[in-house]
Automatic annotation (TrEMBL):
InterPro entries xref list: ADH-like_C, ADH-like_N, ADH_Zn_CS, CAD-like, ER, GroES-like_sf, NAD(P)-bd_dom_sf
Domain (Enoyl reductase (ER)) ranges: 11-341
Taxonomic placement: Bacteria, Bacillati, Actinomycetota, Actinomycetes, Micrococcales
SMART domains: PKS_ER (SM00829)
PROSITE patterns per UniProt: ADH_ZINC
Domain of life (superkingdom): Bacteria
Gene Ontology molecular function: alcohol dehydrogenase (NADP+) activity; zinc ion binding
Annotated EC: 1.1.1.2
Keywords: Metal-binding, Oxidoreductase, Zinc
Any Pfam family matching the protein: ADH_N
Family that this chain belongs to: Belongs to the zinc-containing alcohol dehydrogenase family.
Cofactor(s) required, per the database record: Zn(2+)
Name listed for the protein in its UniProt record: alcohol dehydrogenase (NADP(+))
Reactions catalysed, as given in the entry: a primary alcohol + NADP(+) = an aldehyde + NADPH + H(+)
Length: 347
């Protein structure tokens, strides 16, 4: 076992504190990664605070991990010492079910193993990226191409793939009109990616506060959803809407913005069920869908795409002692657009 420095929550109601956690010995198929940067995802906060169910504590969150391989197991073929690598929201899956065999491990029929707070296949509880090192089976480690700095790469492992996968699945590209609802951690990546894919991109945000940012990130249009005129102007005009907002929104009025065969895809997860007016679907053969991260193969494809197009996340790099402040700022939507922890500060 390897004891490593980390930041972890001692309970659902306490701030994260510096501590040490155990990492398993490097097995034949494992790689040891020296973590350089870990992004702060909204899910980290929900999970450590017990919003999504009881957890085992202490819990170190973090599933946007970028670092360098420092040791590999005897059977490892995909990575070598010195490689720049990333780990996202999952660290294992059954590898046998239809979805795993199709390369869609995130939809493993036995449940994928989350990067933190999950029971791994060996029975231990996983601990996340707010730490100096992590041991992960090689198949769930992806390569970060030269050309993307590790700090701006980290958020791609959750926010990037979560938006890339539905954009690809629903055919984002030239000639397609795509709207992104919400310009936060996920939304800002959706705008960058959809623009790089060649689509015409519209941001739908509550206000016009971040309009200048949105246009700089690659959006062609920017509208306030607090203005009813937005819904009249855009009615029936969009091919795809990516909804990144976790709060409840009026899905039926957004569905009315879609063209024939358009799709509204939720990547945010509101706690409450969302009511949908079936007429809003029937009227244009529209779909209301959802999407969760992406498979390992697609995550690699996303990183290669980002390198090719010079894309990374917009980040604010913070030292470890600012993690709790950053949590408050994330909850207040006061971040443009992702906090990333510099793990060299985990002394
Ligand atoms: Zn996340
Ligand atoms: Zn499976």
């Amino acid at each position: 076992m390897l004891s490593v420095n980390a930041y972890a929550a001692p309970s659902a109601s306490e701030d994260l504190v510096p501590t040490t956690i155990e990492r398993r010995d490097v097995g034949p198929h494992d790689v040891l990664i020296e973590i350089k940067y870990a992004g702060i995802c909204h899910s980290d906060i929900h999970t450590v605070r017990g919003d999504w169910g009881p957890q085992a504590y202490p819990l170190a969150p973090g599933h946007e991990i970028a670092g360098i391989v420092t040791e590999v197991g005897s059977e490892v073929t995909r990575h070598k010492v010195g490689d720049r690598v990333g780990v996202g929201c999952m660290v294992n899956s059954c590898r046998e079910c239809a979805n795993c065999l199709a390369g869609e491990e995130q939809y493993c029929l036995k449940g994928n193993v989350g990067t933190y707070g999950a029971v791994d296949r060996d029975g231990t509880i996983t601990q996340g990226g707010y730490s100096t090192h992590v041991v992960v089976t090689e198949d769930f480690v992806v390569r970060i191409p030269e050309g993307i700095d590790l700090d701006v790469a980290a958020p791609l492992l959750c926010a990037g793939i979560t938006t890339y996968s539905p954009l690809r699945h629903w055919g984002a590209g030239p000639g397609k009109k795509i709207a992104v609802v919400g310009l936060g951690g996920l939304g800002h990546m959706a705008v960058k990616l959809a623009h790089a894919m060649g689509a015409e991109v519209t941001v739908l945000s509550q206000s016009l506060k971040k309009m200048e940012d949105g246009l700089n990130l690659g959006a062609n249009h920017y509208y306030a959803t607090s203005d009813p005129a937005t819904f009249e102007k855009l009615a029936g005009s969009l091919d795809l809407i990516i909804n990144t907002v976790s709060a409840s929104i009026d899905i039926s009025s957004y569905l009315q913005l879609l063209k024939l065969d358009g799709a509204l895809v939720n990547v945010g997860a509101p706690a409450e069920p969302l009511p949908v007016n079936a007429f809003a679907l029937i009227g244009g053969r529209r779909s209301f869908a959802g999407s969760a991260i992406g498979g390992i193969r697609e995550t690699q494809e996303m990183l290669d795409f980002c390198a090719e197009h010079g894309l990374g996340a917009e980040v604010e790099v913070i030292p470890a002692e600012k993690i709790n402040d950053a949590y408050e700022r994330v909850l207040a939507s006061d971040v443009r657009y992702r906090f990333v922890i510099d793990t060299s500060t985990f002394a």
